[in-house]
Inverse folding.
């Protein structure tokens, strides 16, 4: 496995100097943030990103994310324009040496939580999702002053209302069709460029606000992989996104998709599954519901050799910053993952 770490660029409070000191760090996971969703990334911005990373002795091999414009998910007329741009972005990051691109196909909202600073008994803070709080929010009511953390700040409330409304009559089947249309056009480009596409599961892995969500379960991942059945069309196995539903057997999925060679990127995160939602916890297995050892072992045993990054961390030791993406707890997570991997590898010899 290649250990990696997400970095939000020069504005990130966590610096590349910090990250390079985490033992075993190989790859920086990042993106170009200076253009609106759907537009082409400049070669200069890609090159600047790469040079900042390589100067610090690390690699720039994973992009997270090239976001998918809503017109593509909605199947609107302008989708071909945005798909062409998407293909151009694949080509450009591939030219810079990127090997893996993470993206998602969630309508409107990326990951959703109800609170970003829930205090755990040990005094650390974490991200949580409580269903009853989500049920109080109606994004179609623009006069409601309820918003959820993590919502895309680039939309005004009116725009958000409008975009959610456009999905009101969209079925899951239609979203599948639109995903297939997209994949049929981008995957051949990724094959040509030698890049692996790695779709991220929906987080949480169920429908919110009546919006269709399809990358949610083993059955649906099976269907996804068959849409364009080539190795480059793969997944980001996000343990927290899948594991927040008791219906998903993450260990089984890790083993199965690794054996198929379709896991290109792994987000390792532990969650405590609760009757009304979930709380993100530290990476250690005993701190949450997921068996992190068993997941790593399933990956190892099935020949996984892609990128892994510690996913969200809590805020500990008084750190403040981007929720889920501080330095300290993610660094602890990275070290834990290193330890698991070394023990599994040596135990196998
Ligand atoms: C959350 C992340 C997601 C992920 C996207 C991939 O912290 O895991 O935002 O980057 O869903 O497109």
């Amino acid at each position: 496995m290649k250990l990696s770490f997400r970095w939000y660029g020069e504005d990130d409070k966590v610096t590349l100097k910090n990250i390079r000191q985490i033992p075993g760090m190989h790859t920086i996971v990042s993106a170009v943030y200076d253009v609106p969703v759907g537009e082409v990334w400049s070669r200069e911005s890609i090159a600047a990103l790469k040079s900042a990373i390589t100067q610090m002795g690390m690699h720039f091999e994973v992009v997270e994310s090239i976001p998918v414009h809503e017109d593509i998910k909605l199947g609107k007329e302008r989708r071909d324009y945005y798909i062409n741009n998407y293909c151009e972005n694949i080509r450009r990051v591939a030219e810079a040496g990127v090997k893996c691109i993470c993206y998602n196909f969630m309508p409107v909202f990326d990951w959703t939580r109800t609170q970003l600073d829930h205090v755990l008994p040990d005094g650390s803070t974490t991200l949580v999702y409580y269903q009853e709080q989500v049920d109080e929010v109606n994004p179609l009511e623009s006069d409601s002053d309820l918003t959820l953390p993590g919502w895309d700040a680039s939309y005004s409330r009116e725009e958000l209302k409008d975009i959610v409304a456009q999905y009101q009559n969209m079925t899951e089947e239609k979203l599948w069709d639109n995903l297939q249309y997209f994949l049929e056009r981008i995957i051949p480009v990724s094959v040509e460029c030698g890049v692996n596409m790695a779709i991220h599961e929906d987080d949480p892995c169920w429908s919110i606000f009546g919006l269709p969500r399809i990358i949610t379960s083993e059955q649906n991942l099976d269907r996804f992989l068959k849409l364009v059945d080539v190795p480059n069309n793969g997944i980001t196995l996000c343990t927290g996104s899948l594991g927040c539903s008791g219906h998903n057997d993450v260990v089984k999925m890790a083993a199965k998709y690794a054996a198929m060679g379709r896991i290109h990127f792994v987000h390792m995160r532990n969650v405590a599954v609760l009757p009304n939602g979930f709380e993100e916890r530290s990476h250690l297995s005993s701190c949450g519901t997921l068996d992190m050892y068993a997941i790593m072992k399933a990956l190892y045993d099935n020949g996984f050799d892609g990128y892994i990054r510690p996913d969200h961390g809590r805020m500990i030791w008084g750190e403040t910053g981007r929720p889920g993406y501080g330095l300290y707890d993610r660094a602890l997570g990275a070290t834990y993952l290193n330890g698991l991997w070394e023990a599994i590898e040596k135990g196998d010899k």
In short: The two ends are 17 Å apart (CA to CA). The chain has a mean pLDDT of 94. The chain is about 40% helix and 20% strand. The pocket of D-mannose is lined by residues 64-65, 102-104, 110-111, 200, 267, 312, 324 (CB under 6 Å).
